[in-house]
Amino acid sequence: MNQYKMNNKITSLFNIELPIIQGGMVWCSGWKLASAVSNCGGLGLIGAGSMHPDTFKEHIKKTKAATSKPFGVNIPLLYPEIEELMDIIIKEDVKIVFTSAGSPKKWTPFLKQHGITVVHVVSSAFFAEKCEDAGVDAIVAEGFEAGGHNGREETTTMALIPSVQKATSLPLIAAGGIASGKSMLAAMVLGADGVQIGSRFAVSEESSAHINFKEAILKLNEGGTKLALKKLAPTRLIKNQFFEQVNNAECKGASPEEMKTILGKGRAKKGIFEGILDEGELEIGQVSAMITEIQSVSEIMNEIKNEYQESILNMKKLEF
C-alpha cells in the first residue's frame, strides 16, 4: 500500500503518502480508525465532537501508540468544553487540527502559534475566503451529499469544488459523496488536491460505530437519507422513525424551540454508538447507498487507490 505515493499540496502539507483524509465523524472516529487510516498512508482523524476531554486525551495517546504516521483531530468549534480540548491538543503535541461548525478566526491564530497545521471545513466559496483571511493552511469544501451536519447553501460537491478552487489559493480537500477511486479522481479533476471520506470509513471494521448502525447503512438504497433539522442545523439522516418525527414536525411549522425539544440530548450517540436505530439520529451521507459490505480500512484504501489508478488509464482512452 505505502509503496505508492502521490506528491501534491496535500501529501506535502501533512507528510502522507495518499491525499485521502478520513472524516472526524462523531461516534465513529476513534483511535482504531484514525490509526488504521494513517498506517495505510492517508490521514486519520480523531472525532472529538463525541468525546469528553478525558476520553479525547485517551484516544490521542492510543493513536500515538498505534501509529508512527501523521494523524490529526477534528474539533467542532461550538463544542462546549473546547478550551479543555485545545489545552489537551497543546499538551499532547498534536500536529494537525481540523476545525468545523463555527468561525476559524478565534482559534486558528492560537493553534498556529503552537506550530499546528490548521484546516477548516466550509460549505461555500464565501466561507472559504473567510478561512484564508483567518490564516488556515487548507480547506475542506464539503458538499450537500455529506452525512451529518451540512451547509445551509445545499450546494453539491460537483458545483462547490470549482467555485472554492476559484475563490482561494489554499490547498483544497473535497468532501461529500466521495467513497471510491472514481469519485476521488472526479474531485481532483474539478480542482481538489485531496479528498475527505466519511461514510465509507464509518462502515469499516475499525469504526467505533455500533454494528446495528453499520448494517442499517448496508441496507440503504438511493434516497435513503435526507436533510432534516433545517431550523436548527441542517443534518443528513437515515430515514428512520426519529427522522419521520422530525420531518412531520418541520412540515407542520414547528418552531426552533419545539424542534430542540424533539431532538433532546444524545440522539446521535443513541443511534450510531448504541445501535438504537428507531430513536437515534443516524448521520450518514448519500453515498451510503453504494456501500455494500463492511471492510477493513486496508481493503478500503487499496480499493480506492487501485480504482483511482485504473480510472486515470481509462480516461486516457477518451483523449481527443
Describe the fold and architecture:
There is one protein chain. Helix 6 (125-134) packs across helix 7 (157-167) and helix 8 packs across helix 14 (297-316). This protein has an eight-stranded parallel sheet with strand order 1-9-8-6-5-4-3-2. A three-stranded antiparallel sheet has the order 7-11-10, with helices on one face. It has helices spanning 9-14, 31-39, 53-66, 82-91, 107-113, 125-134, 157-167, 181-189, 199-202, 211-218, 241-251, 256-263, 267-273, 297-316, and strands at 20-22, 44-47, 71-76, 96-100, 117-122, 138-142, 148-149, 172-175, 194-197, 225-228, 235-238. The protein starts with 8 loop residues before the first helix and ends with a helix. The model has no long low-confidence stretch (mean pLDDT 94). It has 14 helices and eleven strands. The protein is globular. With 320 residues, the protein is α/β, with parallel strands linked by helices. The protein folds into two domains: 9-208 and 293-316, Aldolase class I (TIM Barrel, Alpha-Beta Barrel); 211-287, no CATH class.
Quick structural overview:
The protein has 320 residues and is α/β, with parallel strands linked by helices.
Topology at a glance:
Layout: H1 9-14, E1 20-22, H2 31-39, E2 44-47, H3 53-66, E3 71-76, H4 82-91, E4 96-100, H5 107-113, E5 117-122, H6 125-134, E6 138-142, E7 148-149, H7 157-167, E8 172-175, H8 181-189, E9 194-197, H9 199-202, H10 211-218, E10 225-228, E11 235-238, H11 241-251, H12 256-263, H13 267-273, H14 297-316
